[in-house]
Amino acid sequence: MPELPEVESIIRQLRKTVPAQSIKKVVGHYKPIVKAPWRTFVAALAGQRIETFSRHGKYMFWQLSSGTTLVVHLRMTGQVMVVARDHSGDAHTHLEIFFANSPQKLIYRDVRKFGHFELIPTPSIPEYLRARKLAPDALVITPAELYQQLQRKKTARLKAALLDQRVIAGLGNIYVDEVLIREKRSPQLPAVQLTAVQVKRLLKTIHKVLAEAIAACGTTLSDYIYGYKLAGEFQLQLRAYGQTGKPCYRCGTKIRKTTIAGRGTHYCPKCQG
DNA sequence: ATGTATGTTGCCAA
DNA sequence: ATTGGCAACATACA
Q: Which residues of chain A have pLDDT under 50?
């Protein structure tokens, strides 16, 4: 579910709401969410404060006072939220983090259990990104870098290339479709065919769409940020994703849906060829 | 009811 | 080396 704008919205909310106190207790209801042995995880968190929250693409980094960082990836359905200490979780609540002297707790909920928590030394964050071959974040990457990555693609279509986190980090299925319809660019186009000038314009559109989505607190339905007073209102501005059969905002042609690289792809057959 | 789709990513094999 | 397919899991909806 969460792409760059959603993760950014969540991080901003966490900065405002996660207690500054040290962690008092960690409870696991479904421990495989955590990559480390459970005892190791509990020992690493106990007594630490979560000092900073940062993001690269869809990865979150929660920096602990001890010099360890918690890498959190929500995959499709992960949710983190701060709720009352006595809030009773449902069957999908897998982790609970309690703080000293705080009426609040931080919980992790994930219907599909794809998300995960990892423990790494804070100084090795760059190494972690390198090991995953993660491209620069979509808000940071330069036109030249994006062009270079797209040029390396032999046959991949633009849609598939933009979903590839080793090309540009942070875009997912929703925002790629939203960017391409605004750019009047076919998702089927071989990525390698874009010129440097076209890539520069494409990146501008990427920045614009992401900025608008962040301003709207993301797209995904209210529940992704359940517990917060944030709705995720970018869905009101969707022009392609989920709009199958509806008129294109630009020319009125009906939006079509197809499959590219295994992903549902929404596009205007007239504007986007 | 049975099959299909769902925002992600890593692993597999062609 | 690249790329597409599938699995990990649970739910909603034709």
A: 221-229
